Amino acid sequence: xDSLSIVIVLLVTFLAYQQGIPWLFWGSVLLFVVTVxxxxxxxxxxxxxxxxQFLRLQDFWFIILAIIVAFVLMTQKEQPKPxxxxxxxxPELMELLGGK
Length: 100
Hints:
Layout lengths: L2 H17 L2 H15 L2 H16 L6 H15 L15 H6 L4
Helix pairs in contact: 1-2, 1-4, 3-4
């Protein structure tokens, strides 16, 4: 999952929490946990949600969201990109297109 998608899921999660929509909140939490697969990011996300709930920081949800998003962007692994671009396509397709 790329960084923009993670940020959007986090935003939906926090907005659903703030507006009190439990089915959307738990659905976006599940989507986040299933797609991220980085334990450190999931732990920080969980700690942010716990801070909102138990420290009564609902008024400061945007600050907590910004901290989590910054952490996600810092820890996001760079996806390797192929060198020439030809590796993106099958040899049969390249042959049909007149390539090698």
